[in-house]
Predict the structure.
Amino acid sequence: MTYSDRTIPDLRELVEQQLGKPLAASTHASLWRCPVCPPERHALLMVSADEYKCLSGYPCDGGAHEWMPSVDPLPDEPFAVGVLA
């Protein structure tokens, strides 16, 4: 299996598992309150199937480091590790 053969989960599903139901949703994107920004900013986290963005106007990843899966790409070619016989 190569990295391109892996199925990438819909980010909206990952976020919903962490943050619950969205405040609003369409077929293209869903909105949650940004879990990282202070409440007085009223920031929203917009998430589509393959992208996310905090709409606060400040540098923020919306806490993605917590809910993004870590994907280790597999090499296209097999390689040997250690001493060859």
